[in-house]
Write a structure and sequence with these properties.
The chain has one helix spanning 53-67; strands at residues 2-4, 7-11, 18-26, 40-45, 71-72, 79-83, 89-95, 98-102. The chain has one helix and eight strands, in the order E-E-E-E-H-E-E-E-E. By secondary structure, it is mainly beta. The protein has one domain. Strands 1-2-8-7-6-5 form a six-stranded antiparallel beta sheet, covered by helices on one side. The chain has a two-stranded antiparallel ribbon with strand order 3-4. A hairpin with a 2-residue loop joins strand 1 (2-4) and strand 2 (7-11). The two termini are 15 Å apart.
């Protein structure tokens, strides 16, 4: 975590998020079963490098942020805002696999 004067930066992992669609992959080289070379693996969780991974992560983090009271900015879908009863503003910016928090 970076504690810069402008905010805090948090790196997060996008792995192990549930997938909404069926994704199958070939057996990786070095792990091919000798009697089942044509078999594939059906994934239930996102893997690094999979094109569905960012979408699965974004859907998961979006529902979490809405559940804890953040509102998504209409003009920038990577920007979330939350205010408390005292009028304090918390801004959260998502970019790829990082979260920037501004208080």
């Amino acid at each position: 975590m970076d504690n810069s004067p402008n905010g805090r930066q948090v790196c997060v992992s996008k792995l192990n998020d549930p997938l909404d669609e069926e994704v199958c992959v070939k057996q990786p080289s070095g792990f091919i079963q000798s009697d089942k070379e044509e078999n594939v693996y059906r994934l239930t969780k996102a893997l690094y490098g999979l094109k569905q991974t960012p979408r699965a992560w974004n859907k998961m983090i979006d529902s979490f942020l809405h559940a804890i009271g953040f509102k998504k900015c209409a003009s920038d879908h990577g920007l979330y805002v939350k205010t408390n009863d005292y009028g304090d503003l918390l801004i959260l910016c998502l970019y790829v696999h990082q979260i920037m928090v501004f208080m």
